[in-house]
């Protein structure tokens, strides 16, 4: 299953234009994606794995 830019933006509650901008200016900020002509698709498994990598532990060790 794949997400398009609009669906990814809705998932993250950000503007689709932010996704579009990052695709052209800084694709390293995004999960891996597939370009099919002009269409961009994000594999859901890649998005979920990327989201897990972005999590940070804010608790201090005691």
Automatic annotation (TrEMBL):
It comes from the Bacteria. Residues 2-54 form the Helix-turn-helix domain. This is Helix-turn-helix domain-containing protein. It comes from Scandinavium lactucae.
